[in-house]
Amino acid sequence: MRLPRLQALSLALLGLAGCAAVTPSPVQPSLLDEILANERRGLDALRVGDLATFGGSTADDAVFIDAHGVANKADVMRNVAQFRLSDYTIEDVQLVPLSPDSGLIAYTLTEQGTSHGRQFRAKAYISALWARRAGTWYCLFSQETGAK
Asked: In this structure, what CATH number is given to the domain that contains residue 76?
């Protein structure tokens, strides 16, 4: 069915008026942005030796895996007490969303610093599971594989 020109123009103007009345909601950060910001916050804490921030973003029931095996939060906190990053870069970030409040990121980490009094440079593939619990983001799982 073809509408007369005036009727079509009236409908178009009504549609535009309806769009103009909609107020946009504030821009919300994406899940990837939120998780990556928390991952960086933890790495930045390791850069300056802020173990309270690093520990505060790690769930009490977190599980970590690296070349030495499986570790819990207490194990990791003991280890990072003698660990300092001087520089790092994150590349090739990918996200697997699990819910509006959780997701797994995977990325390549290039890092340098000191560990137990020894200088190091390393490249690793990292995966980390983050979840928001009662409004706060926590790392629940992290796995590190050395890159060749």
From this structure: 3.10.450.50
